[in-house]
Amino acid sequence: MKTTASSDIIIKLTAVIALAMKNGVHVLVLRGTIAKRLSCCLLVILIVLGGSPPAADSYYFRGYYCPTVLMSPMRADVVYTPVGMGIVTSKAGFRIHPVTGRGDFHSGVDLAANLNDRVYALLDGMVTRVGWRGALGVAVEIYHPYPNVRTICGHLNAFSVMPGQWVQRGRVIGYAGSTGRSTGVHVHYTVIRNDTEQYIEPLAFIRQVPKYVAVLNSAITKEAIAMNMRKAKEAKISSKEVDSKTEDLPLSTGETKPPPAE
Question: Is the dihedral of CA 151, 130, 81, 210 positive or negative?
């Protein structure tokens, strides 16, 4: 249901939302809030009472990326972007770069954020690299032994983890910023297969995260994690270079510019 809420119906809407939340149904407020700007409050309310959940994993609405289920990164059964409900400002793939004006390959998805918004790890993993990464600015890279991928959050204002540190899903790994080649505060999110070095479409990966979390404690998954960690250590994954031909990940062995103070 989509509606523009005004003050004469806000009491009814509040009652509906309270009932929905009590029954575990998720309500996404996309623009405005209940407490402020009631006349321009735009809501998308999904109510499932004794019925089946929607078949779609997520929806796009005027630039918003809206997972069907969206609550907290600490829940095991939710879909969550690194910055919460992400407003997609640029998808992965070939595009015209907003700064250079040239066509190039965008290795990840850009999610809008406010300065110093918390950035979360979506899966358990080992931090493999932090610091300045050329046009990507301050970035945090994490290796997730299951499903054997590396994720990179870029353009951060500061990071809160160090290389070699093991982080769990929901851990704050940094804070949103506009470092590097950036037109404004946002988080660039890249996903790379560790075995083939191929890029994975980030939004497709995000939708699969609850499925990965659901099997993390199984014996087969634990065995796969142990095997992948052994291979990663043998390959010295923490010293790997990411494709330097990609504009958003221009790594240079001569890069010396330090990240901003935390």
Answer: positive
